[in-house]
Design brief:
alpha+beta, 130 residues, 7 strands, globular, 6 helices, four-stranded mixed sheet
């Protein structure tokens, strides 16, 4: 019960996101904002990534096959990623099965993107509304 309450307070919205949060924490990844709203500087909605590291400009998307298969859903997923990348955000996209079956690879990918983001010279033009 306590763990579920902690996840809700952190912004985690699904079992898959909770599993990803646990894997990342166990792998030594710094805490992220979960499900924050990202806006452009002029206030235009950009996206709500599953996890976001604002200082590094890195987003994690846990995309289940259930909700992202099919031509329309797949294209929408790609457009969301393109919008994030257009604004300089590094995106790590994983399926829940990858988090479960290959947690070390997920941790390594997130840490690599965080390093890239930390080395960025220009600030992002993104506003976070948590």
């Amino acid at each position: 019960m306590r763990a579920a309450a902690e996840e809700l307070l952190a912004g985690v919205r699904s079992i898959e996101e909770g599993r990803a949060r646990d894997v990342l924490r166990a792998g030594g990844v710094p805490d992220a904002l979960w499900n924050p709203t990202l806006l452009t500087k002029d206030g235009t909605f950009l996206a709500v990534p599953d996890a976001y590291w604002p200082h590094e400009g890195v987003a994690l998307e846990v995309d289940s096959e259930e909700f992202h298969l099919g031509a329309t859903a797949y294209r929408a997923t790609l457009r969301r990623r393109l919008k994030l990348e257009t604004h300089g955000i590094e995106v790590v996209t994983v399926a829940p099965a990858l988090v479960r079956d290959h947690p070390d690879e997920v941790v390594a990918a997130v840490l690599a993107k965080l390093r890239l983001g930390a080395a960025r010279r220009e600030p992002l033009s993104v506003v976070v509304r948590a």
